[in-house]
Design goal:
The protein has about 120 residues and is an alpha+beta fold. It is built from four helices and four strands; from the N terminus they run E-E-E-E-H-H-H-H. Strands 1-2-3-4 form a four-stranded antiparallel β-sheet. It is flat and about 55 Å long. About 10% of the residues are buried.
């Protein structure tokens, strides 16, 4: 039985310029990948993902101004966001998931405001 092994090593550097440098070595050949990132708390986020999701949400809101929710399609969201359906589905399962993420975001903001109000009442 002939078995071949491929050596893959990954070396990741996050520098102060918000650049994620990934050095991927496959069979003695090294590839350098640079990704712009944003640090949110302790989590490092790819800026491209953030911008794509922002575009999709913005497009969803624009469509809600001219269409009823029931009539909005994923295809329309993609057209407004200028992204492909595969890009949409890599971030969301459906238009319902977009709406859920929006609602969750507002609920988190509301909870944070309530916490601040309760803290200020204690002090």
């Amino acid at each position: 039985m002939n078995t071949s092994f491929i050596l893959i090593s990954v070396f990741i550097i996050l520098n102060s310029c918000k650049m994620l440098r990934v050095y991927l070595t496959i069979c003695s050949k090294t590839y350098k990948i640079i990704i712009n990132v944003q640090k949110v708390g302790c989590i490092v986020v790819d800026i491209r993902v953030v911008k794509t999701k922002e575009n999709i949400v913005k497009s969803f809101f624009e469509l809600l101004e001219i269409e009823r929710y029931q009539n909005i399609t994923v295809e329309q969201i993609c057209q407004y966001a200028r992204c492909s359906r595969s890009t949409f589905y890599s971030h969301y399962d459906s238009k319902e998931n977009v709406l859920k993420e929006i609602i969750d975001g507002y609920m988190n903001q509301f909870r944070n405001v309530l916490r601040k109000i309760q803290i200020s009442k204690i002090c």
